[in-house]
Amino acid sequence: MTIFAIESSCDETSAAVVTRTDGKLVVRSNVVASQIATHALYGGVVPEIASRAHCEAITGVAREAFRLAGAEPSEIDAVAVTFAPGLIGSLLVGVSFAKALASTLGAPLIPVNHIEGHVAAAYLEHEELAPPYLALVVSGGHTSLYHVKDYITFEEIGSSRDDACGEAFDKVGRVLGLPYPGGAAMDKLAAEYFWKAAPGEKNPIVFPSPAVGDTSFDFSFSGLKTAVINLIQNERQRRKTDELEHGLRLQIAGAFTAAVTDGIGKKLKAALKETGAGTLVMAGGVAANSHLRTSVAEICRRRKVSFAVPSLALCGDNAAMIAAAGIHMFDAGIVADSSLNASASDESAEITLARLKEKARIRNRKAT
Ligand code: KG4
Ligand code: ZN
Question: For a substitution probing ligand 1, which of 35, 159, 256, 286 has the most ligand atoms within 8 Å of its CB?
Answer without folding.
Answer: 286
